[in-house]
Here is the input.
Amino acid sequence: MADASPAPPREGDFPDVQLHVVTGKGGTGKSTVAAGLALALASGGRTVLLCEVEGRQGIAQLFDVPPLPYEERLVAHGTQDTGDVYALAIDAEDALLEYLAMYYRLGRAGKALDRFGVIEFATTIAPGVRDVLLTGKVYEAAKRNRRNKKARVYDALVLDAPPTGRIAQFLNVNNELAGLAKMGPIKAQADTVTTLLRSRRTAVHLVTVLEEMPVQETADGVHELHAAQLPVGGVVVNMVRPQDLDADERQRLLDDIVDRGALTKQLAVAGVDADDALVETLVSEGRDHAQRRNLEDAQREIVHGLGVPTYELPLLPEGVDLGGLYELAEALCRQGLA
Here is the structure.
């Protein structure tokens, strides 16, 4: 009898990566995958920071904790109760206040600017500055070392980033600032952030589901990231449905050559008194299932053809709670993403 125990975890596919950026089309479960990846990375005693930058408080909802302030908070332990996951909601206005305090010693004056709405005005008219501030805070957390007194040092960071359609622009901060700042502290910060984002210490992972539009956007995202010289990590295919039918069964349904009599007998054995109408309904639903699986297989081939590592996460029938996040984390560990 074959051993039904799960396969042991693989060594991670990205051992040199410290910053994992997660992006994906809306509706693909990007934030869920980012949270699962953070839990997976925390395995083995690592300390991980999970960041979000879109102001949705998605991390707090996933981990069932109060809304996150602009402060790093412990939200969970890694799989097998090892390692810690901290979370941070990065806000551009708070990041700018911190930036002004660090580089210009403005302190109270910076807060006065905030009261007058100057900070919101600045980050609204110059989106490139907003992105530099958001990514700059991630950079600050990544560059910490043991000499940073009172600062928590992280073994890995996970950034729940903007959607795929904007990810290259968001990460390509130097280009975004080209017409705004030729020199000075903002330009210097953009340069240092860009050095990290284009290095071997960073990987950009894309999340998709097996549907035509998300897969196409993922393919476009991979191309745009390569063009911007940003390091592509892997593609995570999320919410994968179980394969309930093998290839022969699917083909019989598609060719409409299902043996109705045999199906009726099987239902009777199961205690179901099936009339012709019920049998035809079941056959029709089976045909729809077979068509969807064929479409998913076609999209899976496109994903595999992108030339980057691919990982799959199951659809969780009961929805995503903390237990579900741990289940996804374990799947990512087994497949080698973390």
